[in-house]
Amino acid sequence: MRTGLNERTLSPYAGFMIFALVAVIGFAYVKWAPYYAKAFVAQSHHAIGDSILSGKSSAVPTASWSAAVDYAMAYGKAIWQALVLGLVLGSGIKVLLPSQWLGRVLGRIGLRSVALGGMFAIPCMMCTCCAAPVAAGMRQSRASVGSVVSWWMANPVLNPATLVFMGFVLGWGWTFFRIVFGIAMVLGVAYLAERYAEAGERAAVEHDVVPEVDSANGGLLARWLREFMTLAIRLLPEYLVLVLLLGAARAWLFPVLDAPDSIGWIIAMALAGTLFVIPTAGEVPIVQAMFALGMGAGPAAALIMTLPAVSLPSLAMLGRVFNLRTRLVIAAGVALTGIVAGLVATIVF
User: Fold this and answer.
1) Could you tell me if 273 and 307 are in contact, meaning their C-beta atoms sit under 8 angstroms apart?
2) For a designed S-S bond to 261, which of 13, 225, 272, 296 qualifies (C-beta 3.0 to 4.6 A apart)?
3) Domain regions of the chain by residue span
């Protein structure tokens, strides 16, 4: 009799229960408990910390190795636990969840899978980079392009904790604004990604191109650890390099923090926000600091929509499951939504 659990001894139900237990414990420790406490801080102080872009300064640091390392350290301190959880869950999907089951639930092309992916993301509350390993695991286990994009983007854009922080810090009008444009962004970009994905990429779900995990490859924990290490080695080196580069390039992406309401600045902030990487809810103190310096509602709205949605590192992390065209469609959809939101904000606020 084998001493290690494998596919023959682990039923689909047991695998699902193990995965759910790990997810609930992980999210409770990394997300739910800390954000519950932070909500009271936001309510009492109308702030949740300094801007990760500039700290207490009124200007972004000039491009340098020091600026790169300082940003990477601050960013890493904020997200490392969630990133580890993302790697654990992303690898766990392939080991514990039957791909046939995931394909039946989220594998169909169309609005149903897109909507389900977005709804499943609501309690997870991960930033775009920490959600990327899970999105990769979902895609490799036969989830459709639309459902994966919807889950991936809804995590940061429709994060309930961020919406609460935003209400207490920036005002509830901005929370409502984010909800309306966030739903439109998530569903719209997911639809476009699925619509313009190449035929072979869409068919990957339907034609069983992802092999099942070989039951002879050892026990459950050994296979899970192997998948974890494979995922980490594939994603983290490139991710770290891009975070360092973006940390150094802050001064070029955000040359001023008091941009006025103009179409030029709205476009510039939408593009910068699409590329830049921040931790969960990092857009709230960033925009609060920019408002204090005189930034207009239009550029601020563009950042509120684009900063959390995607980033250059998170797009790179999904390079093995989405081709370049699909990722360009996602980035373009996010930037365009940010521009439209900025133009609307100049009228509404």
Assistant:
1) yes
2) 296
3) 49-348
